[in-house]
Design a protein that fits this description.
Elements: H1 3-38, E1 44-50, E2 56-62, E3 77-78, H2 87-94, H3 102-108, E4 112-114, E5 119-120, E6 143-145, H4 158-170, H5 174-189, E7 202-203
Parallel strand pairs: 4-6
Antiparallel strand pairs: 1-2, 1-5, 3-7
């Protein structure tokens, strides 16, 4: 990947996140009010995630679960009928509206609009436990959406997700980013594969 492509990618991230925040600002306010009125706890869920080169950053999301959910029930694993998900949280997860605050992460430079999804610092592994091939996914900033998200999302195994992430990083181009962004719109209009099977589960607030 060339430096000029990465520079243009960053410009698109800055412009896209700014425009996105302006356009969705009424929605952001409404969601924040609804969360506050319907459940106890903070409006936002802030969590440490692995960013580019394994550097830890704090991801920002709308809270979709009860307060202190990671210490209740199945911990970091979340399934479709999880009782810890709030009523408004279930709707936010279905349409990925809980991800909107990550536009601030993009503007700050911790994330990109498109890239591998940022992983938990300790699950499925710690950064030191990933092998050389797996670490390729950390060569680019994590994204709000990515190649794995438009090709199965929650229905994919970890190996499948990593395969898509590595393919994205290895073959990166601005054209691919644009294609992923357009396909993401379609996935949001007709959401599916949000959760894995009851046995597999997905990461808390992912």
């Amino acid at each position: 990947m060339s430096n000029i492509n990465l520079f243009i990618k960053r410009l698109i991230d800055i412009f896209g996140s700014l425009v996105g925040m302006i356009i969705t600002s009424p929605v952001l306010i409404i969601i924040a009010v609804l969360i506050k009125l319907t459940s106890k706890g903070s409006v936002f869920y802030i969590q440490d995630r692995l960013g580019k080169d394994g550097v830890t950053f704090k991801i920002i999301k709308f809270r979709t679960m009860v307060e202190n959910a990671e210490n209740i029930g199945s911990g970091i694993h979340v399934t479709e009928n999880d009782s810890r998900i709030t009523k408004i949280g279930r709707f936010l997860r279905k349409y990925s509206l809980d991800e909107l605050p990550q536009l601030f992460n993009v503007l700050k430079g911790d994330m990109s609009l498109v890239g591998p999804r940022p992983l938990l610092t300790h699950f499925p592994k710690t950064f030191d436990e990933y092998d050389e091939k797996e670490r390729l996914r950390f060569k680019m900033k994590p994204g709000i959406t990515g190649l794995a998200q438009i090709n199965g999302r929650g229905s994919l195994s970890w190996d499948e997700k990593f395969s898509y992430d590595i393919r994205y990083v290895s073959r990166y181009s601005l054209k691919i980013d644009i294609l992923i962004l357009f396909k993401t719109i379609g996935c949001l209009i007709k959401p599916k594969n949000i959760y894995k099977s009851e046995e597999q589960g997905v990461g808390l607030e992912t």
